[in-house]
Amino acid sequence: MRQNIRLIQKRQVANGTMAFYFEKPAELEFRAGQFCNITLINPPETDEEGNTRGFSLITAPCEEDMAVATRLRDTAFKRVIKQLEIGTEVRFEGPYGNFTLHKAETVPAVFLIGGIGVTPVRSMIVQAMHDKTRHRIILLHANPSPSYAPFMVDFEQLAKNNQHFTFVPVATEGAPDDWYGEQGRINEVMVKKYVPDLNLPIYYLSGPGSMVTAMRQLLVNMGINEDKIRTEEFTGY
Ligand SMILES: Cc1cc2nc3c(=O)[nH]c(=O)nc-3n(C[C@H](O)[C@H](O)[C@H](O)COP(=O)(O)OP(=O)(O)OC[C@H]3O[C@@H](n4cnc5c(N)ncnc54)[C@H](O)[C@@H]3O)c2cc1C
């Protein structure tokens, strides 16, 4: 569908990272994990990349809100969206994509995610918990430090309330003394620590191309069948 929608709220969800809440189109039907295109209408500045970007929906179909989130880099699009006044209209197109949770509930889902790649993952996990599916879900989410990790509170709460979900925050550059997560880049030792039977799950990788490539290489080197790897690459990072 294609529709103009208004900005309702902006919220910082991590260092340099903002969530944008929009009016949810009444007719919108989507699956958790899908993305949309957002186009700025008559922005005060633009560049050769144009006024449209693809963003995964961070909210799940079961939630009332509809939002996307992004790292606020110094590009024309990001400068404009950061300053967008509440009530401003943008053009919504979507939903698109098939980065969605597999149906078979006996097959675990393992998410190996870096930074902003977590956007579709929040939607998928919130919906799975809401539907009380029996998927075993394990999320390893790497960020330079905890302050760069979007939705940490959401994931901690979901893991507390749901025995099927394990949340492992990973700090690659620095963490406080009382850090309960892992430290360093996601590696073979970490994956083996949390995934008991390596050949059983479907692995989900999303985010900037370099992160997705690195995680795919890690899994392939560990002998994981590539048919069990699903990816969503965020172009433009
Ligand atoms: C299916 C899909 C889902 C996506 N979901 C999300 C999402 O949920 N959240 C999200 O944030 N993005 C998402 N993206 C990516 C998003 O569409 C943008 O491409 C991305 O946010 C970058 O936009 P930009 O305006 O910052 O950079 P652009 O203006 O698009 O960048 C243009 C070029 O300049 C380079 N560049 C710009 N700024 C810098 C910088 N500071 N440092 C280094 N290089 C730079 C880029 O590498 C790129 O080659 C998704 C993309 C796809 C295809």
Q: List each distinct ligand once.
A: flavin-adenine dinucleotide
Note the main sheet. Answer: 6 strands, antiparallel
The CATH architecture category of the largest domain equals 3-Layer(aba) Sandwich
Strand order of the largest sheet: 4-3-6-1-2-5
CATH topology of the largest domain: Rossmann fold
CATH first level of the largest domain: Alpha Beta
Describe the fold and architecture.
The protein is of the alpha/beta class and 237 residues long. The protein has two domains: 2-96, Translation factors (Elongation Factor Tu (Ef-tu), domain 3, Beta Barrel); 109-234, Nucleotide-binding domain of ferredoxin-NADP reductase (FNR) module (Rossmann fold, 3-Layer(aba) Sandwich), CATH 3.40.50.80. The protein is built from five helices and twelve strands. The strands form two sheets. It has a six-stranded antiparallel beta sheet, with helices on one face. A six-stranded parallel beta sheet has the order 10-9-8-7-11-12, with helices on both faces. Strand 11, helix 5 and strand 12 form a beta-alpha-beta unit. It is globular. The two termini are 26 Å apart. Flavin-adenine dinucleotide is lined by residues 35, 49, 53-56, 68, 70-71, 73-75, 77-78, 97, 116, 119, 232, 234-237. Flavin-adenine dinucleotide binds at residues 35, 49, 53-56, 68, 70-71, 73-75, 77-78, 97, 116, 119, 232, 234-237.
